Amino acid sequence: MRRAATASIAVLLGLLGATAAHAIAPVTVFGLRFPEEVGGYTLNDSTNFERTNPGLGYSIDYSMPGWKLDVFIYDLKRREIPDDAKSAIVRAEFERSREDVFLAQPRGPYAQVYLRRNFTIDDAGKRTRFQCAAFHMTRDGARPQDGFLCVTSWRNKFVKFRLTTLARQGTEAEARQHMAAWNPVLWSGPNAAPPQQATPPRAGPPRAAGPPRRPPPPPRRFRCPEGYICR
User: Fold this and answer.
1) What is the mean pLDDT of residues 10-31?
2) Cβ contact 150:161 at 8 Å
3) What percent of the chain lies above the pLDDT cut of 90?
4) What is the C-alpha separation between 97 and 91, in angstroms, rounded?
5) Does residue 227 register a pLDDT over 80?
6) For a Cys-Cys bond, which of 93, 122, 147, 156 suits 135, CB 3.0-4.6 Å?
7) With a threshold of 0.85, does the pTM exceed it?
């Protein structure tokens, strides 16, 4: 029994990235470049769901000691997704993804899932970038875990982050720091949105050539009639 428990804990720590695997080369999906390392996380693998299920996009697997991170980029076959984490469309996708956590409970590895709270994460300019939720999860024969879900949008795509670690004090603060490391990845450098080019004014039809225009005559100087007071 002791060997089985030890093996279970070892597997769990392995899933949480207790030891960093060899990183793979950066991956570019839908024009978004996922770097080899982000905020201490190492890129491990990527999965293409788009090939068999158009609209589900790709998943990118990262890990660091004590944490596991899965990033999903997809569009659900939507043509337009606002570049605003506070928009109704992004919030609806966040709520749908949050419900998926509970729907996976009966058939997933977790015996119980609790929603601790919802929160948002802003960038340095006070713009809301991520809609997030914090969870507490328990499973048979293993230590409880803390999970975090964050959803945003990027160039007509949803980007979803799923972070997992062993339950302890201060994990939400750590998760916020981890997510802050993605701000420059998504919205600066090569992944920044291209600047919008001003639309040049439409040229009207050319005017027909005509005689040269004469300059206007000089204004006449007012003369006060005789017998009137004009000043």
Assistant:
1) 62
2) yes
3) 60
4) 10
5) no
6) 147
7) no
